[in-house]
Amino acid sequence: MLSPPAGYTCSKHFDGYPCCHRQWQHHGHCRFVHGYSRSFTFWFAARELDANGFVVDFSSLRPLEAQLRQQFDHTFLVNADDPLLPEWERLHEQGALDLRVMENVGMEASAQLLWGWANELLQDRDGGRSCCWKVEARENRANAACYEALPGWFSSGVS
């Protein structure tokens, strides 16, 4: 497990993203379309606080929250290599589902994707002062996956 970088840390939790997906290559019941109300927790770090005394001003995360809603709120997630993709696209065009094609719909890959989104926002806005070092993607109370890494621009101290 990655330790947070030296300095200040905080976290922000987002929940209430009902969506469905399937893992078409799974040999068990996960190959069927099923849904969860996903939630996500982001951990942030900074070596110095901003002018307000924050690692990250939570109100400044509205663009990230908008991305989460766009991707996961009442959507159908499908892997890019799903053999039924043409059918899902047809159903999307007919208005039967709100399709999002992802490299991998699993919680581990979702956590990594969101880590990238958070760090893109922070690097653009803060110029390397803060970063996201961990994301937890949760499908329910019992099951979650995390992605942890320091972006190279933060760990190297390069802004």
Structure description:
With 159 residues, this protein is of the alpha/beta class. The protein has a single domain (8-152), classed as Tetrahydropterin Synthase, Chain A. It is built from four helices and six strands. Strands 4-3-1-2-5-6 form a six-stranded mixed β-sheet, sandwiched between helices. Helix 1 packs antiparallel against helix 3. The longest helix is centred in the C-terminal third of the chain and has 20 residues, at 107-126. It is elongated, with a radius of gyration of 17 Å. The two termini are 25 Å apart. The mean pLDDT is 93.
State the major sheet: 6 strands, mixed
Q: If you average the pLDDT, what whole number results?
A: 93
Q: Give the H and E element order.
A: EEHEHEHEEH
Low-confidence stretches: none
Q: How far from one another are the termini?
A: 25 Å
Which sequence of strands runs across the widest sheet? 4-3-1-2-5-6
Structural class: alpha/beta
General shape: elongated
Share in helix: 25-40%
Per DSSP E runs of 2 or more residues, the count of β-strands stands at 6
CATH architecture: 2-Layer Sandwich
Strand content: 25-35%
The domain tally reads 1
The first-level CATH class name? Alpha Beta
Compile the SSE list and pairings.
Elements: E1 8-21, E2 34-46, H1 62-72, E3 75-79, H2 85-93, E4 99-102, H3 107-126, E5 130-138, E6 144-148, H4 152-155
Parallel strand pairs: 1-3, 3-4
Antiparallel strand pairs: 1-2, 2-5, 5-6
